[in-house]
From TrEMBL:
This is FAD-binding PCMH-type domain-containing protein. One of its GO terms (cellular component) is mitochondrion. Keywords: Oxidoreductase. Pfam families: ALO. InterPro entries: ALO_C, FAD-bd_PCMH, FAD-bd_PCMH-like_sf, FAD-bd_PCMH_sub1, FAD-bd_PCMH_sub2, FAD_lactone_oxidase-like. GO terms for molecular function: D-arabinono-1,4-lactone oxidase activity; FAD binding. Residues 219-420 form the FAD-binding PCMH-type domain.
Length: 763
């Protein structure tokens, strides 16, 4: 790489990524103390900058991790390592310490459930996430568990997993569950026998008492009285009937990957639709599979995946019935294995349930695509009386298919799938100015010098604008990433083909493992306290963020030729991203009509929103760098779902978000409020405020806009008419099915939904 000269200023406003890395290397040269605490970092950065040395992405990550592994003053590497399974630890150590090739280390690797899910299962069961080995059970980050007997079984607190009663596990929660043995049913305490007795094994329910709940983003926490894990529709019905008979409310949770207050209530019932079969699968076999009953560890009725009869809205499509506990990973594998049909859109993450992505109206990318809820053709749910009901009327589905769980416990969804197609992926790394050129009214001196291009002609600028707008308008999948203070954008836009010839799996095993390595690196960097000392020593606030962004961009692919892969694989192109805990705010901005042709979208507001976020990030570079993860934007369609933030966006939607790492939590909200304030300020050509609304699953609670809580604006302005239409459609469904809105408030609501939808209904 070309070496860059360095200027006296240390601001990222003036210096590009390589120049800032050079400043870090210079600072390490001038300070023996900090250099000793980060052994090998100066050499790595110098070689990275040298035109005579080639440092590939895998080598950069390996050597960067080795810096923290060998540091005698920072323990982030070991602490992050201790959170992994023994298999994961061994592979990382072979890669970092033993210098084994990535191909060898990744052989046989399969991405395990995320760190957050492991923590959740530990909180729920009181059992640390354990790895069974020939030497017994090894708790992650803890010494070997007492009372193990090697590979012959696991004994926790004196109880064998083969015993009928499994109770009193370590931790704050106790496990109450029912098992049938020789015609005798055993149930533990809490008067749950009437709910759980007299049914076959496949309809049993596990119940935990007083198990603390936290969402993945750590912004929602409460303690339900009961956390129930059903394995069948009948099990769900028994839970709801118990709630009805004991005047309790019921809410569901899966992988808990949301930042919004859409979960349960303190002291009530939470149904966990988390797939324990997925959470305890080989090769990351955990002690939970020894503690939990075997019937809960297999795919069950709530993980159904089947093509069903019916008439799709588009000829050639099919209807697929999916259990609410089915994960995106199970769905992806099913589609690829059958190679006949696929969902046309989805979220990136595979560690989510279909129920969890549908309830808050999640989305994918591409202007031709609406939300996931718009694909729903039938909803099967357990109502407030414990009866199984269905909704398949297209008009009523506009409420039922995106109802946040307020209608009842959704057990199955029938979605319309398209014939399998194949993505022609060709990700690119493009200079920031050229990927999405700044708005026409943004002066050159507003652009950070670090991002400016020499000799960028007006003709080239016009061509770049045209290219961006054509891709945004017509691309099957359209997405842009910018990591803080990067010189380049990662552009992931592609189209599909019906021709399967030359299709390959993506990501490969090697690529998946490297994604895991990059996420591990991210966690080490955000937890390394010695980097704070580096920042203070060099007076370079963005030093740590520079390394994080460089490592992240280095890990993302860019190809000269397209790679053809199965559509579901391309939609879920990143694996394991849930291993890095982040905070995230996202808004949906309606695309505005072109001044010359109102039937086509204009992208001036989109370009403004993108660059306002970039400039806000630079403005805070000397204030602790509150944004430490990417700015991300997807162009998508509108929606017919009543409560979708994309509803009414006939020309499409700009879904734009900013993220940060957990380490920046303390400074995040004021920064997020500043960025959101800009995004909500845009007006159309008539001077009217554009109806920009937040993504329901992202962070909006606890954030102020225009000097008041954002949720007040959502209720009084953004969804003033929609929430009444939504309640009207729910009431119409209830009239058919024998329940009222008052029943919904009592049985399936929570504190937020009480105030948002049901404030005029008394119990």
């Amino acid at each position: 790489m070309a070496h860059h000269s360095h200027h006296p200023s240390t601001s990222c406003w003036d210096h590009n990524v390589d120049e800032r890395i050079g400043l870090i290397a210079d600072g390490l040269s001038d300070n023996d103390d900090i250099r000793k605490k980060l052994p090998g970092l100066r050499t790595l950065l110098r070689e990275y900058l040298s035109p005579d040395v080639s440092v590939e992405s895998t080598d950069f990550h390996k050597r960067l991790l080795r810096v923290f592994r060998e540091s005698e003053y920072d323990f982030a590497y070991q602490q992050c390592l201790d959170r992994l399974t023994s298999d994961e630890r061994d592979r990382i150590e072979k890669f970092v310490a033993d210098d084994k090739p990535l191909e060898d280390v990744s052989d046989g690797f399969d991405m395990c459930v995320s760190l957050g899910v492991r923590e959740h299962l530990q909180h729920l069961t009181g059992v640390p996430f354990l790895q069974v080995s020939s030497t017994g059970v090894q708790a992650l980050g803890f010494p070997p568990t007492n009372g193990t007997n090697g590979t012959n079984g696991v004994h926790l607190n004196g109880h064998s997993p083969t015993q009928v009663e499994v109770a009193g596990l370590s931790g704050s929660s106790s496990l109450d569950w029912l098992k049938h043995k020789d015609g005798l049913f055993h149930a533990f305490a809490h008067k749950l026998k009437d709910m759980l007795l007299d049914h076959e094994d496949e309809h049993k329910v596990i119940v935990y008492k007083d198990a603390p709940f936290q969402n993945w983003g750590l912004v929602v926490d409460y303690t339900p009285q009961y956390t129930c894990i059903p394995s069948s529709v009948a099990g769900v019905q028994r839970i709801v009937k118990y709630a009805r008979d004991h005047d309790m409310s019921v809410r569901c949770a899966g992988f808990r990957h949301s930042w919004a207050p859409i979960f349960g209530r303190q002291g009530q019932i939470t149904i966990s639709l988390l797939s324990l079969a997925e959470a305890t699968k080989i090769p990351n076999f955990t002690a939970l599979s020894k503690v939990l009953p075997e019937w809960l560890l297999h795919k069950n009725e709530l993980q159904t995946l089947e093509v069903v009869p019916g008439t799709p809205r588009v000829k050639g499509n099919v209807l697929v019935r999916i259990g609410a506990s089915t994960t995106n990973e199970q769905l992806r594998r099913w589609c690829v294995k059958n190679n006949k049909y696929s969902y046309p859109l989805n979220v990136i993450m595979v560690e989510m349930t279909i129920g969890g992505t549908n309830a808050p109206i999640c989305h994918g990318a591409g202007r031709r695509h609406q939300t996931l809820s718009d694909l729903v053709r039938k909803v099967e749910y357990v109502d407030c009386n414990g009866r199984l009901q269905t909704v398949d009327d297209p008009r009523l589905l506009r409420a039922a298919a995106g109802c946040f769980g307020l209608m009842g416990v959704v057990t199955h969804l029938t979605l319309e799938f398209e014939p399998m197609s194949y993505a022609l992926m060709k990700p690119e790394k493009i200079p920031v100015l050229r990927a999405i050129p700044p708005p026409d009214d943004m002066a050159d001196d507003e652009i950070p010098p670090a991002l400016r291009l020499q000799n960028w002609t007006p003709e080239e600028r016009a061509a770049d604008i045209k290219r961006f707008e054509e891709v945004a308008t017509n691309g099957f999948y359209t997405e842009w990433f910018w990591f803080p203070y990067s010189d380049l954008c990662w552009v992931n836009c592609w189209d599909t083909t019906a021709d399967p010839a030359g299709t390959e799996d993506y990501p490969s095993n090697v690529q998946t493992f490297f994604m895991f390595i990059s996420q591990f690196t991210m966690n080490v960097l955000q937890n390394a306290t010695v980097l704070n000392e580096l920042i203070k020593t060099l007076h370079l606030d963005e030093a740590a963020v520079t390394l994080i962004s460089r490592a992240a961009m280095f890990a993302l692919p860019a190809w000269d030729e397209p790679v053809k892969t199965y559509l579901p694989d391309a939609l879920h192109f990143q694996r394991g991203i849930q291993n890095v805990r982040v905070l995230d705010v996202e808004v949906e901005i309606p695309l505005q009509p072109s001044e010359t042709d109102p039937t086509k979208p204009d992208y001036a507001v989109v370009r403004r929103a993108w660059w306002d976020a970039i400039l806000s990030c630079y403005a805070h570079s000397s204030k602790g760098c509150p944004q430490r993860m990417p700015l991300e934007m997807r162009i998508m369609g509108g929606s017919d779902i009543v409560m979708a933030p994309q509803k009414g966006n006939t020309l499409g939607t700009c879904a734009i978000e900013v993220l940060t790492l957990e380490a920046a939590r303390d400074m995040w909200v004021p920064y997020a409020e500043e960025v959101i304030g800009k995004w909500l300020s845009y007006r159309d050509r008539q001077g009217k405020k554009i109806n920009t609304r937040p993504h329901w699953a992202k962070q909006w609670d606890g954030i102020n806009v225009d000097g008041r809580p954002w949720v007040e604006k959502m209720k009084a302005e953004d969804y003033r008419l929609e929430k009444e239409e939504f309640k009207g459609l729910l009431a119409e469904i209830g009239k058919k099915h024998g329940w009222s809105l008052r029943d919904l408030k009592k049985r399936f609501s929570n504190d937020f939904f009480d105030a948002f939808y049901f404030d005029n209904i008394t119990l």
